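Hi X.,

You mentioned you wanted examples for the new student's onboarding notes, showing what a folding record looks like when two proteins sit in one file. Here is a clean example. The first protein comes first, with its sequence line followed by its structure tokens.
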Amino acid sequence: MADIPTPDYEHIVKEAGIPTDAKAWRDVLNAEMKKAGCDINNDSRFSPFWRVIEQAVITCTTWLINVLLVKYILPNMFLATAKDRYLDLLAWACRVERKPASKARGHMVFQRAATQGPPLIVPKGTWVQTETINGQVYRVKVLEDAALEQDATTVVANVEAEQAGAGYNLGGGYFHVLPNSVPGIGAVTNEDDWLTDNGADKESDDDLRLRVRNQWSAVAKWHIDAAYRSLLMEKAGIQDDNIYFEHNAPRGPGTANALILLDTGEPSDDMIAMLNQHINDHGQHGHGDDMQVRAMPNTQHDIALTVWPKAALTETEREDLGAQVAHFIRAAFRENSDYTPTRTPPLGRFSFSRLKGELHAEFTGIDSLDFAQSDIESHLTIPRLASLTVTMQG
């Protein structure tokens, strides 16, 4: 959330005339004693009585102001700075609840080892996993038996992630390892649009903040961005800044498109159909509205990178560096979330010079690198990888 305000509550308290330091509160205490007609004559630094009274009052008061008021009460009174359970209470007031973590679901394509043959079964419980990505292996499990018919070359099986989390929303081709072989099956993979339900981490404070803020302008069920944005965020777990609207009446007056984007992976046709059904068939659109949900259109790019690793690296370290650099670039193109580079935007410029700097900061084994491409400019489209080539030199 780039526009979140960061108020200085200590400065605000001082501007309100509330003392925040021990000296100021000592002056306040002395003034109040004089107002009460209580003259303190034994106030030398050797007088234990008055020093004990001062410290007891001042220590407690400065803690109440600087810790309780400035660090807890004031920040948690406002949506912009509230955290954890305090933010949950503010969300409850707007009938919004923090979304729990959820598991990714989708389809895997299993391919027969031979060109033809008898019927085969990909059994329920079959695991498919990725290679190691930044020290992590992701696994999905087949949910029910998938029957490969006589002489058919492929079969599609429904799968679910091993654990909840957005890290499983990987791009096409990441899931391709069978840890235990399946008789008759030669290969398995996930396609670009394999996700039917995208996995999600427990909703962060900033994401919840966005939904609560949006809720204030979503109270009417008319054709306004906020109402549809709220529906899509709640139903599909899509973040506020991953929903874009086309208002130029693409199908005539009263029509609009909501273009959605995932942080990693691509929304499947099943997900798009589910969202359109939720809005258009379940009474969630305004009178006369024609609103369609669509995946953000993409543009395909062939990316080539040459890397000069540090001379001290072994051959194994060079190979691992090349693999992790490739994963890092794929993360920038929204294919995994194991690294956090600047992601490709649907509006604006994707800077390869910035990506170079992020690669240098992430991998100390890089001596130099060079991209063959110039920056990518997007206009309501999202750049995707058609191919990626990482060449290790030296």
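Then the second protein repeats the pattern, sequence line and then tokens:
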Amino acid sequence: MSDNHATPDQHPEQGTLATEVGYIPVEQQLAELIAKHAEVSDAYLRAKAEAENTRRRADEEIAKARKFAIESFADSLLPVKDSLEAAIAVHVGKPDTPVETVLEGVHATLRQLSSALERNKVLEINPAAGVKFDPNQHQAISMVPADQEANTVVGVLQKGYLIADRVLRPALVTVAAPK
């Protein structure tokens, strides 16, 4: 064989390459590659723009959620405020209102407030005497001698509260001292 023979991948005419179908001029291949590149670049830019738009919309939604997250809670508390204002208005207009009537209104308002808190997943932490001290939900104010097991709650000085299983404020408790 001489060196003048073409290899199977190379056409004797310069500027063409062999394919399964035959020989395609390099210029045609270049044009096809340029077109494919433009198509891929366009798809990439569109995908990148869509990702940016999605990220921007998500950021806006997060900002709105943070800004208005308390809206439902505030709406639940408005009737409580209305009740308190009505009680003050009644008392100012009739300073001789019986204490029982005022106390009845206070209890009704407390029920409204408790209901509003409960609807918004704010739950009381009010451990009964004898419950094991839990440092995740209780804050010990003092240890006192008691006729119960050590490190158990003797009394609650101030109720605590959870909001969606997270401690908003621990219950202030006294705890039984070791014997």
